[in-house]
Amino acid sequence: MEIVSLKHISKAYDEGRVTGADDVSFEVQQGELFGIIGPCGSGKTTLLRILNALLPPDSGLASIYGNDVQKEVSFVRRKVGYMPQKLSLYKEMTVEENLNFFVARYNISEYESCQVSTRLFYQLEPFFNKPVGLLPEQIKRKLCFFCALLHRPAILLLDEPASNMNEEFKTEIWELLQSLRQQKITTLVASPYLEDADLFDRISLVKEGRILVTGSPAFIRENHPVQVFTIQSEQVADLMPVFEKSDLVEKCYLLYDKIQLILKPSVSQSQEMLSAIAYESGYSNLIIESAHAGTAASLMRLIIG
């Protein structure tokens, strides 16, 4: 069942000089964990704010359960939970005072309970009497996440909930997202991290306000295949510029003691050609292996163009 829909959404800023969304269309099904992935400034926040009826589009239709979000704002507030990128908390108030404020805002008598919010509640409880402004960043984000779940929404919009945080926090957020999926809560997450792609049911890749591709990770890998190789050598640092200059290589990364290469689509007989490139430059003692090309590699190619 289609729960969230964007149809031909466009939005411009600064008298048309900056594009936030350019003819964007996609649908999200009930219970899906859906990712809006793209670099900073690509339009992810614009799309979430339009869906949450905080920003009117210049053209197009955004709907939730078939209702135009611009015409049914009260319906949106009941059905949608929103965690903005810039946390909407009152720093001078305590954690408990912030929660009481949002309880009153949602016009509910107490915290609605679901598996995720209950888990977050017990993590936040030791900080109830502390001013939010004095809390560590990860506790502030958990509080904002919890506030978005207070009224037990059917749809959750999260704007980069784990950006610039450590791996432990990111792992914890993804565990919470998986739990939301199990509870059939439809969740849209904006993320700048291409490597997050395989964690979603489906994604839309956004660049400069336009959707480059929408689909499952498997669909994207199948329709945008990428050849990835790793190269091991005692002279990795010396080999890097050799492959960076090659016409066969699209992207070259140094990963600790290895080089990872993304080859251009037209390249065949890849392993033999890479060996020849190294040999012609005087390098022969190296190990070249085909690597798993995750969805992130396909997305990188699409962004590069």
Molecular structure report:
By secondary structure, this protein is an alpha/beta fold. It is about 35% helix and about 30% strand. It is built from ten helices and 14 strands. It has helices at about 45-50, 75-80, 95-105, 115-125, 135-150, 165-180, 215-225, 235-245, 270-280, 295-305, and strands at about 1-15, 20-30, 35, 60-65, 65-70, 80-85, 155-160, 185-190, 200-205, 210-215, 230-235, 250-255, 260-265, 285-290. The strands form three sheets. Strands 6-7-8-3-9-10 form a six-stranded mixed β-sheet, with helices on both faces. Strand 12 (about 250-255) and strand 13 form a beta hairpin. Helix 4 (about 115-125) runs antiparallel to helix 5. It starts with a strand and ends with a helix.
Give descriptors for this structure.
305 residues; alpha/beta; six-stranded mixed β-sheet; four-stranded antiparallel β-sheet; 33% helix
Q: Strand-and-helix sequence, N→C?
A: EEEHEEHEHHHEHEEEHEHEEHEH
N- to C-terminal distance: 33 Å
Q: How much strand?
A: 25-35%
Number of strands: 14
Compute the average pLDDT.
Answer: 90
Into which percent range does the helicity of residues fall? Answer: 25-40%
Structural class, judged by helices and strands?
A: alpha/beta
H/I helix tally: 10
Q: What is the 3D shape?
A: globular
Strand order of the biggest β-sheet: 6-7-8-3-9-10
Low-confidence sequence ranges: none
Quaternary state reads single chain
Major sheet details: 6 strands, mixed
Question: What is the radius of gyration computed over CA atoms, rounded to a whole number of angstroms?
Answer: 23 Å
